């Protein structure tokens, strides 16, 4: 008999509603759920990968341990959960007792925020370890956003969301939502929303070194030299000041410090910025004027401006532009969500620089150190050296800068355990791998992405399949490890309740509960009765009440980014003339873990070096010819792809490839192995202000070969 299940796709930030039909235990179709109030039936080609992931023969179903064959090579052997959990707890406890908490390193990958059990239960283990050596994908991604929000709004998660459905003018930098479906911006069906914006007379302007899929659809596109976005944003802000276009409107009573910013940036004129960024001064002034005169406008930037040398400065300037034009917290501008499970009100605000990494003295953010420092913390002897690693749903060998250095570093560990369903480029170094149930075998609530969504909605997804006998959910693994690890130290630990029970408590404390007097009267039961989700309405203005700053004011003159202007001036004055490497995203890919599904990787090779024909001619490189790309950190060899969609002086390699490393168990991915762009990104090339990796704008040399 055919059953129909409704659930959220958790693969990317868009959290599209799905209708999954199952017959006799097999998935027979995956379609968009038209009743979902957020995604309205939209899905992208990746949705079907949920089936591929569930059925993938390479996905581990049981824990494995690494064993050494007689010839010295490694192999994997299935073991019982008892042995896997006990050995892990014992080895971690042994190293903890001998060398201290900091001898254990932790790295959590991006999928850990897409599986709610990983979020709700990781501290069931980590609260017993309390290591300073915690790392995650945040510092190769959105760390500059969190830091900016902490400085301006008093909370790392007060992230302004572009209200695209009600805007008139959208200035977008370094983002390609047509491929990503939104990032720090849950926006399913973005193509239709951009078309609707243009149809109602609005404008989308895209700034990007590549004419992306989004730029193709935009009203206007400008190429920009990688790493110079901060100069452009400063020139826009400067124009707002000098042409008397600043109007903070409804924000006026609780915004201060803009005068100090105006004074500090007088030298960043449109003419000065034009010399560096490649956009003419008149065009820059036009961007400022258009944004100022729009009834409702948005300035937004993502990966291209976040993961570069001046990522934090860029994100801070983006918010100052939204404030200076009165577009923050205004319908059609950049707004704050009101999620049913409110991790802003209910969670820690975050902090910065409270401790530093041992070797390079890089600052922590929210108790995590920059991922670019992980390898050196393993490799450098001395007190506090990492001797054991826990990785959760992460593949930092492919996703953090100078992956080869980390690859070698992981080899030197005394013990490594990975909570992961795959033997990938990182987990191949583990001694034990603990695979959780497949996503379709557990329930899910999107703690992270309702917080970032363009409309307030809520939904819990029940499992599609029963949990197989003898398997454990991710949260059960954390509970078990916490109890066993504490036990080895002679302490007692209690298991946390199941994640849905924590959601029930969060809903009761949230803004739509009966206790709070909301007519929605949300409970877990009510969510389960509405599997397509419940609409809670558009984003609402909510400042200054929702500010977390001590005095309920937004202080625009944050000292750290103001001081960082000196670093930008020095960088602009010191152009090395080298080609600049940027990444690129494809709608059929998502970081490193979507390449083992035939229907997502079939077709033309996508892991190519995209290069402008003028640069190819200057370097004697032919279209589809082999090239070597070198940086301070390393070298890769791949095929060149000629394209006028990329600006001269810039080359691009997509990230997440490089699956040919020995021992990786991903049969399809290995046939489409490609190279890892993070073999040539540089762990020393950072946004010095935050410690975020600068994987865009990396200086490289290219030659035929
Ligand atoms: S856009 Fe994202 S959430 Fe929607 S179907 Fe595709 S992968 Fe899933």
Summarize the structure.
With 705 residues, the protein is α/β, with parallel strands linked by helices. It has 25 helices and 32 strands.
Please, could you describe this protein's structure?
The chain has 705 residues and is an alpha/beta fold. The protein is built from 25 helices and 32 strands. Strand 30 and strand 31 form a beta hairpin. Helix 4 (123-129) runs parallel beside helix 19 and helix 5 crosses helix 14 (311-324). Iron/sulfur cluster (SF4) binds next to loops.
**Mean of all residue-level pLDDT scores:** 97
Helix vs. strand class = alpha/beta
Identify the bound ligands: iron/sulfur cluster
Shape type: globular
Q: What are the key terms here?
A:
705 residues; alpha/beta
Q: What layout of secondary structure does this protein have?
A:
Blueprint: E1 2-8, E2 17-23, E3 26-32, H1 49-55, E4 64-68, E5 74-78, H2 81-99, E6 104-108, H3 116-121, H4 123-129, E7 134-136, H5 143-153, E8 161-162, E9 169-173, H6 177-180, H7 190-199, E10 203-207, H8 213-217, E11 220-222, H9 229-242, E12 255-256, H10 258-264, H11 270-277, H12 281-293, E13 297-301, H13 303-306, H14 311-324, E14 334-335, H15 343-346, E15 352-356, E16 363-365, H16 374-379, E17 388-392, H17 396-399, H18 403-411, E18 415-419, E19 432-434, E20 444-445, E21 455-458, E22 460-461, H19 474-488, H20 499-509, H21 524-529, E23 534-538, E24 554-555, H22 559-572, E25 579-582, H23 598-601, E26 609-611, H24 613-618, E27 626-630, E28 635-642, E29 650-652, H25 667-671, E30 686-687, E31 692-693, E32 698-704
Parallel strand pairs: 6-7, 6-17, 9-10, 9-13, 10-11, 12-24, 17-18, 18-19, 25-29, 26-28
Antiparallel strand pairs: 1-2, 2-3, 4-5, 4-19, 8-14, 15-16, 20-22, 21-23, 25-32, 26-29, 27-28, 27-32, 30-31
The structure holds iron/sulfur cluster.
